[in-house]
């Protein structure tokens, strides 16, 4: 065990040059409670592992945690508190798109570097904010990877969208609709829902009647599970169910085998992607007793980057900002570099793999370069 | 407040004293930012003053005219969205936007009043809630107009040029002064309404609608006037809230908890009185803000970051700060239906009686 | 004035009418969508009816509008979730424990709080129950955080196929239990002395008192039964819903719409109202838009309040 650990650390050491003894204060805003809490838990775990690694490397980090309960206004007051009260050097988070986008504005205003680990909303890094850095891939890549995958596996001609009317849902769906049109797919349904009253039977019946080849869903955990349950109830049977990350890539969803089997989801990271990632998965499972999701991996890397950079810059926010802009890291997410391209500012380029749930676990099925298993396509029907 | 007036003053002098005390309180609060720079204190001040405005506004229709609207979030939300959308979509500065917010609030109150004022008792309450809920769902659904659940994030408030001076709305300071000034104006306005003919009509309607009607008081007209005044101030507070918090979404500004909060400010302080909403706000706001963010106390220096109080509150209570509202309202309704002000008055009266009794005893002894 | 259970067979007929014998017929896709949404609407409406009946009983007997009713449903859901999570008790079986527990809780609330404001202004009664609701939802939030919780049973996503129309198993079970509870309740109200006492108190509190009915006890009983029904509804709906501390407020509002629709105080009216609201929501989601179904319900409600405030079955306003 310790040997494995050492090798993982060695892998990291290449990426993160030794910083010596240093004390840094990192702010971490996350959905610790609330509707997104099951996902937030993964981020917290990722941050905890990163803190361990940083301490081992001699970086003495203190993490000031703030719970935004998934609400942007709470995230904003948390950010104000971190920026003016706790005087943190850098902020990691928040989780949701809505919160991250709101906090980004304040990060720029208070000149506090912010590393967004897993929020998809396109605009977060498209507003020219020089203090906001995003590790994960933005919304349009969710849609592109999924639709490209479906087009590679079969010949779908029509698509239906069901999504939560939040920043995340609308952002991914807007990109999805544009890409579907560009690829010649007919959009036969476009249904949004509000979270809080999960009776989607009527909506799903309507979609079933429209008979789409693809059903594209964007949701957080609870709704992802209930949407799929009710899809099974009403007997919705397209060629493929496409889940837009978030709730569709969680341990909870995976464990609901009746409804998760053969569902596709897009993801930022898979445990199969590299030896370092496999080691991360082993360590994570040993510690928390469950599979790490991409949220955990992203939060882990974001915290490592934040801690290392802050330590080197002696906690100075300006210097951290400069170092984040010019730095390069590599680790379980591959190479990390915050770049400015195609209207994005400080955006890490990441290829999003597509996974499918087969036999109770997720396997990578797309793109060809990282494939680990053959996809089951079309959807064979409900068990 | 319950200090006895000096014997030289006649009843008119009492009013003058009240005025002096009121002015002194406003001036003292005006000077606070000179000595206290902590953003947390100013933040608390702004939220407090907004609560005073909201409480006073609700008081006009709920307290004086006796129409228990539990749907005031409708006006608050419309005020917030009007100001925010004018600024974000049409680049109209909030000082104009707030005027539009008030206009929209009044307009909405006329529509809602027409529909709901023919109902009484629980039916009126339910109808007022329904109106706010309809607006909430409409704002959530019509995304092309309102951006739905995503809401609006404020980009930047332009600099105000007034009397050759520049006012920047970046920190909490300007909001502190604006809301303090408006709260003072609202209190004065409420005082004027209460002591005007209008105020007497309102109270007649509250005491007995049918009797008021038989006296020739137009029920619908005066209820509508009360609601319009109330809606105007509520919409104003909504607009300022949007500018201050910098983010609005349908659930945040149209939610039923917003409406309930307005009512509770009055109930807890003392319904149908001028200073009831002030006291209600002074009780509710600090309590819920401290529970919501106990680190603020650390910032002010009232608690250390590792004190067990802060850690306990943060771990357990920060997400349930509305619990305080619940407990307070239950206690107030059961034990002090006149609110905190009623309790103070009763305590004051008892004290006075005792003193008088003692004074008489002393005089008899001499 | 207060139309309590009078036409039991009629109500059951309405409830039973949702599952028509369709087997063996060929249906077009449009008809299919229509029937499917009618069916889902009626099944969900049955559970709504249970919530509405509880509220209407409380109003009928005490003339108190209980704004904490949805929170009682929420407590029922959490209790069910807890029993399932820790004791692996099936949600439908847990009603046997949840309903009595909520009965006791309701009786306690009535005795300790509501009873003290029976003669107060209706506004103060409303505020008291709003306060109690806030205490319950935030108390649960303290204990369980605001996380969304889901119950996973073996039949969570199972369904029967009825000539191409799917009938959700958990919803169908919930509906059947609802019907059973409703029939039992009607029987209790019509056939037993206690039931008659409740009805008499609902009709005229003072007259009932003069006739020797223990009104205090009857009120406690009615509030307890109302709470038990809300709790039962919470248990029934939890296999197909998710559970979080604020879930109650939506049910409170829905329950009011149902009760006003049926005429305040009328049990038959509430049964009918529940099914109508379930149907309205379901059809609005298909034919108008999913995001507008609640809005449609409230518009309907307001229109009814303004044009026929006594409710669909009522004669005069209370």
Q: Care to describe what's here?
A:
The complex is a heterotrimer of chains A (383), B (366) and C (318). About 2% of the residues of chain A have low confidence. Chain A contains 13 helices and 16 strands. Chain A folds into two domains: 211 residues, Response regulator (Rossmann fold, 3-Layer(aba) Sandwich); 146 residues, Response regulator (Rossmann fold). By secondary structure, chain A is α/β, with parallel strands linked by helices. In chain A, α1 crosses α11 and α2 packs parallel to α12. Chain B has 366 residues and is an all-alpha fold. Chain B has a domain of 246 residues. Helices cover 75% and strands 3% of the residues of chain B. Chain B has 17 helices and four strands. A two-stranded antiparallel ribbon of chain B has the order 1-4. A two-stranded antiparallel sheet of chain B has the order 2-3. Chain B is globular. The N terminus of chain B is likely disordered. Helix content of chain C is 69%, strand content 4%. In chain C, the strands form two sheets. Chain C has a two-stranded antiparallel sheet. In chain C, strands 2-3 form a two-stranded antiparallel sheet. In chain C, β2 and β3 form a beta hairpin. At the B-C interface, α5, α12 and α16 of B face α5, α10 and α12 of C.
Give a quick summary of the entry:
Chain A has helices at about 1-15, 35-55, 70-85, 95-110, 140-155, 165-180, 200-210, 220-235, 250-255, 255-260, 275-290, 295-310, 315-325, and strands spanning about 20-30, 60-65, 90, 115, 130-135, 160-165, 185-195, 215-220, 240-245, 265, 330, 335, 340, 345-350, 355-360, 360-365. Chain A is an alpha/beta fold. The model of chain A is unreliable at about 15-20 (pLDDT under 50).
> Can you count the helices of chain B?
17
Order of helices and strands of chain B: HHHHHHEEEHHHHEHHHHHHH
Molecular shape of chain B: globular
- The structure class of chain B reads mainly alpha
Strand order of the largest sheet of chain B: 1-4
Helix content of chain A: 40-55%
């Amino acid at each position: 065990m310790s040997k494995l650990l050492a090798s993982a650390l060695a892998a990291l050491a290449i990426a993160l040059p030794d910083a010596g003894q240093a004390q840094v204060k990192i702010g971490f805003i996350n959905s610790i409670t609330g509707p997104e809490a099951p996902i937030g838990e993964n981020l917290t775990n990722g941050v905890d592992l990163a803190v361990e690694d940083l301490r081992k490397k001699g970086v003495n980090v203190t993490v000031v945690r703030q719970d935004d309960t998934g609400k942007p206004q709470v995230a904003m007051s948390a950010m104000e508190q971190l920026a003016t009260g706790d005087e943190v050097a850098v902020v990691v988070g928040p989780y949701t798109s809505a919160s991250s986008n709101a906090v980004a504005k304040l990060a720029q205003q208070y000149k506090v570097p912010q590393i967004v680990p897993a929020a998809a909303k396109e605009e977060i890094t498209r507003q020219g904010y020089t203090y906001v850095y995003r590790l994960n891939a933005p919304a349009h890549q969710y849609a592109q990877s999924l639709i490209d995958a479906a087009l590679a596996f079969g010949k779908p001609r029509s698509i239906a969208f069901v999504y939560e009317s939040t920043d995340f849902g609308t952002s991914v769906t807007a990109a999805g609709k544009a890409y579907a049109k560009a690829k010649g797919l007919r959009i036969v349904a476009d249904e949004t829902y509000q979270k809080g009253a999960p009776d989607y039977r009527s909506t799903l019946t309507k979609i079933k009647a429209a008979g789409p080849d693809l059903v594209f869903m964007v949701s957080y955990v609870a709704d992802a599970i209930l949407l799929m349950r009710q899809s099974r109830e009403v007997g919705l049977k397209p060629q493929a169910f496409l889940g837009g990350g978030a709730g569709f890539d969680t341990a909870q969803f995976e464990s609901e085998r009746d409804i998760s089997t053969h569902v596709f989801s897009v993801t930022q990271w898979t445990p199969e992607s590299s030896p370092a990632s496999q080691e991360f998965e082993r360590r994570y499972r040993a510690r928390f007793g469950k599979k790490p999701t991409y949220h955990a991996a992203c939060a882990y890397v974001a915290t490592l980057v934040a801690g290392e950079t802050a330590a080197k810059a002696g906690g100075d926010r300006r210097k951290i900002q400069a170092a984040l802009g010019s730095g390069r890291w590599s680790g379980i997410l591959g190479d990390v570099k915050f770049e400015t391209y195609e209207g994005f500012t400080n955006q890490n380029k990441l290829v999003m793999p597509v996974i499918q749930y087969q036999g109770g676990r997720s396997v990578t099925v797309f793109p060809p370069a990282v494939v680990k298993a053959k996809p089951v396509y079309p959807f064979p029907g409900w068990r | 407040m319950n200090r006895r007036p000096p014997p030289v003053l006649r009843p008119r002098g009492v009013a003058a004293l009240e005025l002096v005390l009121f002015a002194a309180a406003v001036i003292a609060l005006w000077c606070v930012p000179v000595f206290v720079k902590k953003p947390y204190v100013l933040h608390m001040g702004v939220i407090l003053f907004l609560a005073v405005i909201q409480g006073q506004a609700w008081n006009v229709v709920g307290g004086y005219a006796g129409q228990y609207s539990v749907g005031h979030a409708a006006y608050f939300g419309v005020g917030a969205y009007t100001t925010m959308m004018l600024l974000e979509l049409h680049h109209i500065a909030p000082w104009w936007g707030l005027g539009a917010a008030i206009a929209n609030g009044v307009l909405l109150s006329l529509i809602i009043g027409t529909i709901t004022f023919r109902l009484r008792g629980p039916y009126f309450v339910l109808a007022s809630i329904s109106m706010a809920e309809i607006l909430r769902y409409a704002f959530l659904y019509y995304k092309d107009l309102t951006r739905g659940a995503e809401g609006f994030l404020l980009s930047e408030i332009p600099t105000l040029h007034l009397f050759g001076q520049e006012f920047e709305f970046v920190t909490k300071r300007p909001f502190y002064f604006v809301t303090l000034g408006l709260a003072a104006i609202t209190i004065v306005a409420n005082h004027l309404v209460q002591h005007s003919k209008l105020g007497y009509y309102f109270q007649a309607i509250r005491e007995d609608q049918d009797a008021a009607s038989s006296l020739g008081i137009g029920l619908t007209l005066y209820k509508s006037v009360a609601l319009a005044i109330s809606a105007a101030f509520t919409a104003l507070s909504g607009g300022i809230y949007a500018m201050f918090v910098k983010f609005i979404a349908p659930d945040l500004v149209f939610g039923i908890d917003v409406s309930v909060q307005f009512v509770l400010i009055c109930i807890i302080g003392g319904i149908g009185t001028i200073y009831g909403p002030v006291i209600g706000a002074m009780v509710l706001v600090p309590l819920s803000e401290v529970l919501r963010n106990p680190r603020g106390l650390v910032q002010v220096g009232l608690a250390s970051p590792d004190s067990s109080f802060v850690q306990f509150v943060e771990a357990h209570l920060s997400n349930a700060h509305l619990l305080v509202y619940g407990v307070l309202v239950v206690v107030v309704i059961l034990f002090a239906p006149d609110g905190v002000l009623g309790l103070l008055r009763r305590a004051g009266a008892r004290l006075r009686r005792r003193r008088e009794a003692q004074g008489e005893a002393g005089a008899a002894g001499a | 004035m207060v139309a309590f259970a009078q036409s039991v067979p009629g109500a059951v007929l309405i409830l039973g009418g949702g599952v028509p014998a369709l087997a063996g017929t060929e249906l077009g896709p449009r008809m299919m969508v229509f029937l499917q949404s009618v069916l889902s609407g009626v099944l969900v409406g049955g559970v709504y009816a249970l919530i509405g009946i509880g509220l209407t009983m409380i109003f009928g007997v005490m003339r108190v509008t209980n704004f904490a009713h949805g929170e009682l449903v929420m407590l029922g859901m959490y209790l069910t979730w807890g029993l399932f999570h820790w004791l692996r008790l099936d949600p439908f079986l847990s009603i046997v424990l949840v309903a009595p527990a909520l009965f006791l809780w309701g009786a306690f609330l009535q005795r300790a709080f509501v009873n003290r404001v029976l003669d107060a202004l209706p506004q103060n009664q409303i505020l008291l129950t709003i306060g109690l609701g806030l205490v319950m939802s935030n108390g649960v939030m303290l204990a369980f955080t605001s996380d969304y919780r889901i119950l996973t049973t073996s039949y969570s996503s199972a369904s029967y196929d009825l000539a191409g129309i799917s009938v959700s198993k958990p919803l169908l079970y919930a509906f059947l239990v609802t019907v059973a509870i409703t029939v039992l309740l009607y029987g209790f109200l019509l056939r037993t002395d206690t039931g008659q006492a409740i009805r008499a108190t609902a009709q005229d509190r003072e007259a009932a008192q003069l006739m020797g009915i223990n009104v205090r006890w009857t009120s406690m009983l009615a509030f307890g039964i109302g709470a038990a029904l809300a709790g039962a509804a919470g248990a029934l709906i939890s296999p197909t819903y998710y559970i979080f501390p604020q879930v109650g407020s939506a049910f409170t509002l829905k329950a009011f719409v149902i009760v006003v629709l049926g005429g305040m105080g009328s049990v038959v009216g509430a049964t009918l109202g529940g099914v109508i609201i379930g149907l309205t929501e379901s059809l609005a989601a298909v034919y108008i838009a999913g995001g507008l179904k609640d809005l449609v319900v409230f518009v309907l409600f307001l229109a009814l309040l303004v044009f026929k405030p006594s409710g669909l079955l009522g004669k005069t306003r209370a």
